[in-house]
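G., the chain you wanted modeled:
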Amino acid sequence: MWGSDWPHVTEKGRKPDDAQLVDLLLAWAPSEAERNRILRDNALRLYDFPSV
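Predicted structure as tokens:
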């Protein structure tokens, strides 16, 4: 399950580089379908949200 503390409100010291994190996500999940499953579909199923 992917989670976020956007915009890193509790991060102390050095802030993460969001562009690097997006690049990493694109490398790990190169297809849009994979990213949708990670970033959207998992949460929809876990919390039983209505599908969009």
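The CA atoms of residues 12 and 40 lie 28 Å apart.

Shout if anything looks off.
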